[in-house]
Amino acid sequence: MLRNIATKHWLAKNKWHRPLYDIYMWIIGRCNNPNNHAYGNYWGRGIKCEWNNVEEFVRDMWEWYKKWLSIDRIDVNWNYCKENCRWVDQLTQQNNRRDNIYIEIDWIRYNSIAFAEKYKVSKATASHRICWYLHGRYTIEQITKEWTKFKKNMVAIIDWKEYTSMDIASIWWCHRSTAIKRLHKYNKWEITKEQVFEKPKERYLRKERR
Q: Which of 20, 74, 83, 180 is the most buried (most CB within 10 A)?
C-alpha cells in the first residue's frame, strides 16, 4: 500500500522533495505499520505522528532541512510534531538515544560517545568499560586508561629522528601491526632500538618453492 502511494504522489517524483517524502514515509511506517520492526518502540510506547499528510510535514520542516542531517525528536518520549522535531547531525542524534548509558567522572557526565572521544577509545570499548564499571568490575583508573597499544599513529624518536609505524614497516618489510607493537614497547623501555629495526624471522618471509 505504501509503495503504491509513493509512486503516485507528486512529491515522490520531485527530486528536491523526495528525500523529505521518504523520511515522512519512514516515520509513518514506524508509527502506523504493525509490520515495521520498530513499531513496538514507537506506537507501542504511545508515540504518534501529528502530521496528517506529507504536505504538512514538508511545509513545517523544509526550511531547516539539510542533506547531511537527519530528523530527531527533542523529547524521545513524545510525538513527531513541529515543536518536538529538529534536524541534527549523526553525533547529536546518537547522544539523544534512550539506550545511552552514562557515567559521572570528576563531576562531569559522559555517555559512551563523549567518553570515547575524551579517552581516545572506540565506542564499543567505551560502552564495555562503562558497563563493567557500573557492575563494579572495573575501577575508575581502569576505565579512563587510554588505549595506545594498537594506536595507528604511533611515533618514536630514535637517534634524534622521528619514526612512525609506516616508516618501520616500509624499511624492514614487516607488518604494520608488528611495527606498532615494536614502537609501543620501545616507548615503554621494554626493547632496544636494535630490536625495533630487527628484520622479521625467516618463517614470516615468503619462501621460494623448492
A: 180
Half-sphere exposure of 48 (CA within 13 A, CB side): 5
pLDDT band at 151 (very low <50, low <70, confident <90, very high): low
Q: How many CA atoms lie within 13 A of 135 on its CB side?
A: 7
* Residue 13: domain span: 2-95
Residues 88 and 23 occupy one common structural domain: yes
Helix (H, G, I), strand (E, B) or coil at 187: helix
72 - beta bridge partners? 86
Long-range Cβ contacts of 39-46 (<8 Å, 24+ apart): 45/77
Rg (CA), the chain: 26
Number of domains forming the structure of the chain: 3
User: 53 lies in a domain?
Assistant: yes
Tell whether 148 is covered by a domain.
no
Contact 105/94 with Cβ under 8 angstroms? no
